[in-house]
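Progress note, sequence design subtask.
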């Protein structure tokens, strides 16, 4: 259905003539393919057409939505794709294809046997998120294809959203298929800079052809970068390559291409990111099968890119859990490894508006030499801590190293019987097909026992917090506990956080920070973190005199899930300002790199009437960013006002705006 007053998008663009009417044989074959795709969870998109064009020449179809377009083309039997935003190139003509285990290349010499197209619009309500509702509005084109040499049937499915584009492959024959490589390329325009990071390294802005060579003896080697991968283009456009709906398939990396300085090529991981476990050079799947989506989130401005991140969720399967009432996002405080520390942590959580406490690595013994996570160390009386926490309305998370997950179902069932609310899995080995499946199985098993799950270390998002919303967070980033630069911190909203939620361990009040305390405070609004670890290195006693810590009321008040989010200003690696609404209150966070700056932010997002703004700002810069004080002030504002947000070097500002 088209919304009232909304511009109707063209139904389909085709070249090389109109497809001819389908013969009965083609229609019947198409019906069988449709049934197989439905069994694989791949919905039909509209009327089918047969397209049996002669060899040679060029055919193309384009999906369009709100100024964004993605084009599939066939040139002398070879598949290609491209993407544009407002008539400007985002991805130039690029390759498509899969290499199978027997060497067959799907995409090098094919013919189109059928086409589907359609426009889809729905809204859905996430269990938690950046916004209370999400609009899923796209135009889709789908080609059914046949490899001329082998007769293998496959397809390519593309979607255009206002927020970006996406593509994936469909293996249509029933049975099994073995995928050895994905041949998708991303040809960026001249002058593009990409922000490359592998594992938990810092982001490095480089040309597409200059991705650093990385890897160790037991890992994938080469000029490879992890996703999400952000690219800044000439003219102000910005794009972020992500993946969504990765199931039974290895994780995608991108690599520089020799002789093609502006192009990145798909690389399917053969080793886990940490190099443990079996090497998997191919992936065998049951067909019909859909590969993960390759999404390109696009922004006309850097700020718009951040607001368009829900594209990744729209491409993921809907919520699979019949009951989500037990899923509660929240803030978390890590306790030291003793009973007394756990009890004190509960009291601190109550006082500071925190929903959970956590026992991290070591609560059941040294994590790399203790594969049994069923008995706490003698210093922790876990039943007493859980009982006290429950009586105060505070939940408990437990950390578990992957070495203790040999029987996750039994372990998670045991934790449920103890009264645990969440688990944090450590040193996860994402990367291969089998590890993708293992990660999803852990999320499913945790959901079975009504446990939240936070996956840590080198794991990357693929939209499955929509499908299993108990999978509430993951790391996959150079974490804040490593005290990165302010530049790194203001890169993340445009890169890693586009792909999904990010566990970033806010380190307010730490002398090792390379940022001001106001910068650390602002992270709670700037980053999307439905599970937000606060005061990471601290004990409750540090904050025994709240007057010494003027930022504490901000952390007491700031939520972790939102009704509405708006990015007000931003430039990757330089600055960011985000406003998020919960109920009638807005929470605004702004951060800058190592340069001081003032942002003039119109407050037009506010409702009618007056608001009281409580501003937590940088004071006079100290001898180091950490020593810059937080200065608190209040003022009355309306939607007609502009807020001048002044930030010290490596600084920030946090603002609460409540109706007066």
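Output:
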């Amino acid at each position: 259905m088209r919304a009232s007053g909304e511009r109707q998008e063209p139904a389909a663009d085709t070249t090389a003539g109109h497809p001819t009417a389908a013969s009965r044989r083609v229609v019947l074959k198409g019906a069988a393919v449709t049934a197989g795709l439905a069994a694989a969870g791949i919905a039909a998109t509209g009327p089918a057409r047969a397209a049996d064009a002669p060899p040679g020449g060029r055919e193309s179809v384009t999906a369009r939505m709100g100024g964004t377009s993605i084009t599939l083309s066939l040139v002398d039997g070879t598949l290609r794709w491209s993407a544009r935003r407002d008539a400007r190139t985002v991805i130039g003509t690029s390759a498509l294809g899969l290499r199978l285990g027997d060497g067959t290349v799907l995409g090098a010499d094919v013919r189109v046997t059928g086409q589907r197209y359609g426009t889809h619009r729905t809204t859905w309500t996430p269990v938690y998120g950046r916004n209370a509702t999400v609009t899923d509005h796209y135009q889709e084109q789908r080609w059914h294809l046949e490899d001329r040499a082998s007769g293998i049937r496959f397809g390519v499915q593309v979607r255009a959203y206002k927020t970006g584009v996406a593509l994936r492959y469909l293996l249509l024959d029933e049975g099994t298929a073995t995928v050895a490589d994905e041949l998708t390329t991303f040809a960026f325009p001249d002058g593009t800079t990409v922000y490359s990071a592998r594992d938990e390294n810092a982001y490095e802005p480089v040309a597409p052809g200059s991705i650093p060579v990385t890897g160790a003896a037991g890992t994938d080697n080469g000029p490879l970068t992890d996703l999400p991968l952000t690219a800044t283009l000439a003219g102000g456009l910005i794009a972020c390559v992500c993946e969504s709906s990765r199931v039974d398939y290895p994780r995608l990396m991108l690599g520089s291409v020799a002789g093609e300085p502006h192009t990145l090529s798909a690389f399917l991981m053969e080793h886990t990111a940490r190099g443990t476990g079996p090497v998997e050079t191919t992936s065998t799947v049951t067909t019909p099968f859909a590969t993960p989506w390759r999404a390109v989130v696009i922004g006309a401005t850097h700020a718009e890119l951040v607001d368009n991140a829900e594209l990744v969720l729209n491409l993921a399967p809907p919520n699979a859990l019949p009951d989500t009432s037990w899923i509660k996002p929240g803030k978390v405080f890590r306790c030291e490894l003793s009973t007394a520390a756990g009890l004190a942590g509960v009291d601190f959580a109550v006082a500071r508006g925190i929903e959970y406490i956590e026992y991290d690595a070591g609560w059941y013994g040294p994590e790399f030499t203790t594969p049994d996570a069923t008995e706490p160390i003698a210093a922790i009386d876990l039943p007493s801590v859980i009982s006290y926490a429950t009586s105060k309305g505070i939940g408990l998370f437990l950390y578990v190293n992957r070495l203790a997950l040999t029987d996750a179902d039994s372990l998670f069932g045991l934790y449920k019987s103890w009264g645990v609310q969440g688990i944090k899995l450590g040193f996860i080995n994402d990367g291969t097909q089998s590890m993708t499946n293992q990660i999803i199985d852990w999320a499913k098993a945790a959901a079975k026992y009504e446990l939240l799950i936070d996956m840590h270390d080198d794991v990357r998002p693929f939209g499955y917090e929509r499908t299993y919303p108990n999978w509430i967070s993951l790391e996959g980033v150079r974490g804040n506990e490593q005290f990165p630069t302010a530049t790194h911190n203001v890169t993340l909203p445009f890169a890693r956080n586009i792909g999904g939620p990010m566990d970033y361990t806010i380190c307010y009040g730490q002398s090792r920070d390379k940022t001001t305390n106001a910068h650390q405070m602002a992270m709670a609004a700037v980053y999307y973190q439905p599970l937000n670890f606060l005061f990471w290195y601290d004990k409750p006693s540090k904050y025994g005199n709240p007057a010494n810590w003027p930022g504490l009321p901000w952390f007491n008040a700031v939520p972790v899930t939102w009704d509405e989010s708006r990015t007000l200003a931003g430039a990757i690696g330089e600055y960011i300002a985000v406003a998020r609404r919960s109920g009638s209150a807005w929470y605004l966070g702004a951060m800058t790199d190592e340069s001081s700056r003032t942002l003039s932010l119109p407050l037009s997002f506010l409702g009618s009437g007056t608001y009281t703004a409580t501003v937590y700002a940088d004071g006079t810069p100290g001898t180091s960013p950490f020593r810059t004080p937080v200065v608190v002030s209040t003022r009355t504002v309306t939607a007609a006002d502009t807020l001048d947000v002044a930030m010290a070097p490596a600084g920030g500002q946090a603002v609460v705006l409540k109706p007066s």
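The domain at 13-314 is CATH 2.70.98.10 (Beta-galactosidase; Chain A, domain 5). Work on this subtask will continue into the next period as scheduled.
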